[in-house]
Amino acid sequence: MSNCESCIIRKISPLNCLSQEELIRISKCKTSKKINKGEKLFKEGEILKGIYCVQDGFGRLSKLCENGKEQIIRFIVKGSLIGYRSLISEEPTNLSATASEDMFVCFIPKDEIIKDLMMNTSFNKSIFIEMSNNLKNSDNFILDITNKTLKQRLSETFLYLQTVFGSDKDGMINVSLSRSDYANFIGARTESLIRLVSKFKKEKIISTKGKRIKIEDFKQLKEMTKN
Fold this sequence. Notes:
The protein is of the alpha+beta class. The chain contains 8 helices and 10 strands. The longest helix has 27 residues, at 121-147. The radius of gyration is 19 Å and the shape is globular. The model has no long low-confidence stretch (mean pLDDT 87).
């Protein structure tokens, strides 16, 4: 792993607000690790001792429902800082973080981050803006689950994933998710999700290659998010 001050990933995260001196200090105390696919970075209810910065790979933040089913709240991508809300509130984390593919992360101890939050107003503001955006997205997510149809939620999910992960050389959304991942993200039964994906394919709105999805008709997909 590179030093924080020369790391490209920091430029797409709130760490970009830290000074060179602060980055050098953090670089000396951080630790790096690989999280294997399916492994949990932390579990719901855990007391965190610092924050994590995702260097490579992707994962998911999820909550365990009363029926034992996993509800995916959002995906973790390169540049994501996770765990800071628990540190600021001084409460156990209310979500679990799991690697959806092999992930490489850097761990920054709590004392170092709190020091920067106290001393660097730009970093402090950046963290709270990100926290505010996440809360807004969570509110929208709850409204979507409650008020929108399965067709609308799936359409929005494909567009969201296209924006977040981009396309590979074949034009496929550059992420591989299982059907159960999609179902857990949009709050649907896997069987219902599979039927709707087949319908989208039949109508040539999307195409698939293994677990990869390609949006064939952006205009129609966007229309489907409205009705």
